[in-house]
Amino acid sequence: MKEGFLIGGGLIIAGLMLELSSGPVDWDAFRWPINGIVQAGILAFIAIIFLLRERVYGLQFIGTYKAAIPALVYAVVLTIIMGLTRQEVNGTWLNNMLSFWPFVLIYVYVAVILGQIILRRTLHFNSWHRDIPFLLNHLGLFLALTTATLGNADMQRLKMITVKGEPEWRALTSQQQIVEMPIAIELKEFIMETYDDGSPRRFASDIQILTKTGKNIQTTVEVNKPVEVDGWKIYQYGYDTQMGTMSQYSILELVSDPWLPLVYTGIYMMLAGAVCMFILGGRKRV
């Protein structure tokens, strides 16, 4: 496995050089359709490596456990570091791991290895009770890994300040840039319930949503109980803390993540693979 660790170490060094020369990964540059093209390019790259594996030893090596285990070790270590450090959008190297070149390159390498393993197992499919769970697990992981990463570029997380009785169609980015939304929201009533000491127990907003497609929705948004309209999830975020129960405005968070269904599909495939392993493995023992 020395070769595997050397390759992973080389990717870490290459990533550090990219980080120093060009800065962190600019995910905004990967917005649709660029991320779709990159996804297709990754699939084509995996297919080319697989077709040429018999001619080039290095390409054949990528699909082996001697490459997979070191790559996973690097990925796990970097992920643990990410979990132990505070992550910020404009943070430094270890504080913004999703845009840290070594982290990205290692996960791309893991995705390429996964692709090789999936193709090889598919080509040598001979036992449905072993190969189907294996393929579900690995295909699910590949799908979740690549779509969660590339889909991050298309995710939007905006704040909208809605004033009672006034329709609002503008929202703010984290950089305080104004974005015109495809929906308009009007605050009808701010609701707040408090404990005996006056601290908030529950706060919500009765709102009216108007869309360009002609929808007119009356609903209530609460903390952790979002409303979904035309691909946007609307969350209760904040209010005028000085006015409390008499707040005349409500702050809503609007989130759009068009790639999320693909991520969930990958997760469900992994869960299905685990269930199949449990059921089919149990039947085999019996």
Describe the structure in your own words.
- It is built from seven helices and eight strands, in the order ααααααββββββββα.
- It has helices at residues 2-22, 34-51, 57-62, 65-84, 101-123, 128-151, 260-285, and strands at residues 156-163, 168-172, 178-194, 200-211, 216-222, 227-229, 232-239, 249-256.
- The chain has a four-stranded antiparallel beta sheet with strand order 1-8-7-6, with no helix packed on it.
- A hairpin with a 4-residue loop joins strand 4 and strand 5 (216-222).
- The radius of gyration is 24 Å and the shape is elongated.
- The model has no long low-confidence stretch (mean pLDDT 92).
Name the beta content range. 15-25%
Q: Tell me, rounded to a whole number, the average pLDDT.
A: 92
Unreliable residue runs: none
Rg computed from alpha carbons, rounded to a whole number of angstroms: 24 Å
Please report the number of helical segments. Answer: 7
By helix and strand content, what is the structural category? alpha+beta
Order of SSEs? HHHHHHEEEEEEEEH
How would you name the oligomeric state of the polypeptide chains in this document? single chain
Tally of strands: 8
Shape summary: elongated
Strand sequence of the main sheet, in spatial order?
Answer: 1-8-7-6
* Largest β sheet strand count, sense and barrel closure: 4 strands, antiparallel
Helix fraction? Answer: 40-55%
Query: What is the rounded distance between the termini?
Result: 37 Å
